[in-house]
Known about the structure:
Order of helices and strands: HHEEEHEEH
Shape: elongated
Number of strands: 5
Oligomer: single chain
Strand order of the largest sheet: 1-2-3-5-4
Structural class: alpha+beta
Amino acid sequence: xxxxxxxxxxxxxxxxxxxxxxxxxxxxxxxxxxxxxxxxxxxxxxxxxxxxxxxxxxxxxxxxxxxxxxxxxxxxxxxxxxxxxxxxxxxxxxxxxxxxxxxxxxxxxxxxxxxxxxxxxxxxxxxxxxxxxxxxxxxxxxxxxxxxxxxxxxxxxxxxxxxxxxxxxxxxxxxxxxxx
Length: 180
């Protein structure tokens, strides 16, 4: 059994209860309001199933009022949720790597290193800046996530990137005395 904070899993294959939202997504047709709601709920259930599989006992207890699930992998903290844009639904996963340093020279060096790292990162995840944070993130259209396993793979890849780089980058670029 996986302990909390480790992300290894064997995700269940979709059953009859899951087939309708997958069929709707695979059809390529625009989503009606009813289908959008069903597909959103399906996506959220896939996030919850992944969370349970990796050791989070109560995904509902880890969900905020906007539906974002809070995740943790060792030192990395992140969120996963379903977002809508232009009548399409997306799985968005984001994890904080570190706060941006206040020193301009450190910010430039950190951004350069993050861009260089992006050239070698496997999968859909990448490093970027959101507000005053360096984050690892990925956003995928639910139409491209053809199995429940794909949801878990995307979530795990983002959390793993954040966990792999957070400590080293904080040590290298976090030593500023200026406040933002």
